[in-house]
Amino acid sequence: MPVAEYAPPPKRTLSSLRRDLRVFAKYHLVRRPHDYPAPAEDDMGVELLGFDSATHVRALEAHAAHFDIATLGTVTYRERSFPISWVRNRAPADAPRLLVLSGVHGNEHAGILAVPRILSRLAASAPAVSVGIVTPVNPVGATEGSRFNGQGFDINRDFRRFETVEARLVRDVIADFDPQLIVSLHEGPQDASFIFANRHTPPGLAERAITTLDARGVLLASSDYFGRRLPAPGYAPVSLTNHLLTKLWAATLGMMHTGMYADELGLGELTLESSWRGREEERVLAHVELVCALVEQLAAGGAAQ
Ligand SMILES: [Zn+2]
């Protein structure tokens, strides 16, 4: 099993601790760390792959023969409009439903660039699974190279108060599409890929998905982005402590991410975190293979197990 090897962590000093705490607070404790406009983020080493809204829409429309493609909503930034697309395959009405959220954080490009490739794979395999993809959830951030939206909000902290149009669109899609499972495609500063799952994710689903990723050449992380060792390569199962901390975080700071929101609805959600550094091919591969692995499992009745 290929597992990423890590350099020893840099020595901690008082000034590095201050910096780490500042970055931690900005990324995890604040829903709106910036005012308009959204800045490019470079303090955690993210490497952008390049995103252009019109090019992305064209890449989706190239698959119009097999998919229904619509504009879910539009956001405006600096007098430019950016579409958020909604793509669905044509599966039988009673097929299980998988909702894919791509690019909730705009500067995590791999999960967005993976979408046209996911469509190619789905067109070729024509699974009996209804797949709906929101892409990108944060088109302004994706264009500007920012984690945040055009108003400076972290959309993935806004699933309690729903102050952003992007979070409200996702909330409405969840209500209308009524998925059995959600997968949210992210990237992070760790050296390879890992998955975490909320409490309603069917037992065994994440483990089987990780086995498939491993078999298909996706490099699995041995630690998460806080440097904590994972119990198994590529997998950070949700602990009770973690769950309670997230609830506390929602109650005190009014913030909630999609995984916790899904949890409150009784819905399973898996989050992929690939490394936001390295070769584009490897970064995109993790997202394509995870979505395809979940589709295969749902087609085989995996959501009921
Ligand atoms: Zn993210």
* Content of β-strand: 15-25%
The description of the largest β-sheet is: 8 strands, mixed
* The CATH class: Alpha Beta
If you average the pLDDT, what whole number results?
90
C-alpha end-to-end distance: 26 Å
Q: Bound compounds, please?
A: zinc ion
Summarize the structure.
With 305 residues, the protein is α/β, with parallel strands linked by helices.
Give me some keywords for this one.
single chain; 305 residues; alpha/beta; Aminopeptidase; eight-stranded mixed sheet; binds zinc ion
Describe the structure.
Strand 3 (97-102), helix 3 (110-125) and strand 4 form a beta-alpha-beta unit. The protein contains 9 helices and 8 strands. The protein has an 8-stranded mixed beta sheet with strand order 1-2-4-3-5-8-6-7, with helices on both faces. It is an alpha/beta fold and 305 residues long. It is globular, with a radius of gyration of 18 Å. The chain has one domain: Aminopeptidase. Bound molecules: zinc ion.
How are the secondary structure elements laid out?
Blueprint: H1 14-28, H2 53-61, E1 67-77, E2 80-89, E3 97-102, H3 110-125, E4 130-135, H4 139-144, H5 165-177, E5 181-188, E6 194-197, H6 205-215, E7 235-237, H7 240-253, H8 258-264, E8 268-275, H9 280-299
Parallel strand pairs: 3-4, 3-5, 5-8, 6-7
Antiparallel strand pairs: 1-2, 2-4, 6-8
Helix pairs in contact: 3-9, 6-9
Zinc ion binds at residues 105, 108, 186.
